[in-house]
Amino acid sequence: MASFPISLVVAYSFWKYFLGHQGSHIAHTVANRGGLNPTLFQLLVWYNRLGTVVGISFLIYLGYVSQWYVAVALFALGFVGQFLLVAIETQLKLQQHAWAISLAGLPALPLILGYMVYVAANFH
After folding, report:
1. Whole-angstrom Cα distance, residue 74 to residue 21?
2. Is the separation of the CB atoms in 78 and 15 below 8 Å?
3. In this structure, are residues 19 and 55 in contact, taking their beta carbons and an 8 Å threshold?
4. HSE-CB for 107 with a 13 A CA cutoff
């Protein structure tokens, strides 16, 4: 088996990062009983749920095409990467642009998924 591709860890970390941002906006809107355009809110809820299911499905696929422990390691490393991205975001004071980050995730997530599937399919 080849060495663990760091690019997959980076991609999965961004996957978790974007979904986390969207999830925090969903939670904030629910806690404040509104404040977000209802159409945008429903889009974020739908997209976040779909992203979560697709992310889990990807891990299952990765475990199938490689070894189960590769998927478990990616899941764990993805959390570490997500926290590193949040730390970088905090240092750069990007929280002021949290909505832009969440919305950037809408087109970014399918691109990240395509890349992750490509890397996983070629991971031997």
Report:
1. 20
2. yes
3. yes
4. 2
Q: pLDDT (tens digit, 9 = 90+) per residue, 51-68? A: 999 999 999 999 999 999
The contacts of residue 15 (CB under 8 Å, 6+ apart) are 51, 55, 78, 109, 112, 113, 116
DSSP letters, the chain, are -PPPPHHHHHHHHHHHHHHHHHHHHHHHHHHTT--S-HHHHHHHHHHHHHHHHHHHHHHHHHHHHS-HHHHHHHHHHHHHHHHHHHHHHHHTTGGGGHHHHHHHHHHHHHHHHHHHHHHHHT--
Domain ranges, ordered by start, for the chain: 6-121
Give exposure, 54-68, as e/b (b: 16+ Cβ within 10 Å): bbeebbeebbeebee
Amino acid identity of residue 103, one-letter, is L
What's the predicted TM-score (pTM) here? 0.90
Query: 11 Cβ partners below 8 Å, 6+ apart?
Result: 112, 115, 116, 119
